[in-house]
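Hey, I was hoping to borrow your eyes for a little while. I've been staring at a protein lately and its backbone has me curious. You're getting the sequence in one-letter code plus the fold written as tokens. Would you mind checking whether the tokens look sensible for this chain? Here's the protein in full, and shout if anything looks odd to you:
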Amino acid sequence: MTGSWIRQSVWVLTLAALLGSGIMGGVFFAFSNFIMKALGMVAADRGITAMQSINVTVINPLFMLILFGTAAACIPLAIFAFSAMSGPGATWLLVGCALYLVGSILVTVLFNVPLNNTLAGISADSGGAEFWLKYLKEWTAWNHVRTLASVLASIAFAIALCRLSHTT
């Protein structure tokens, strides 16, 4: 009974991590593919104001639940994968967890958020154009990393889920 409960819990958490990393990959992709390009095409003061608004509104319960809830799901999944290294899907679980935690969460915390915090202190109408150009380039480059990491994590979780499904 206990083994069955653990397998079912791992399956559910893997599905949640798959969905969460896929959603985040889509959000990050939208920013990398067209949102940042569009903001870069308008006058710096308008781009700064728009991004400052985005950075305020993105801090909401649903976004935070998906971003950090996926990270939270990775913790027990990684522990399970380490304890069951020879089990089906364990390696893929570890790969997915590492990609998401390092490539999405750590990059967000170390690079994108500090850039956002600096941008928050910039006055759109007084000389922010130079920083805005730097921000667009650096923030978008790090966002490409988050996009790729989230998408690859979702693929790893999908493979793990397939492997886990053959054992339940």
Remarks:
- The chain has a mean pLDDT of 95.
- The radius of gyration is 19 Å.
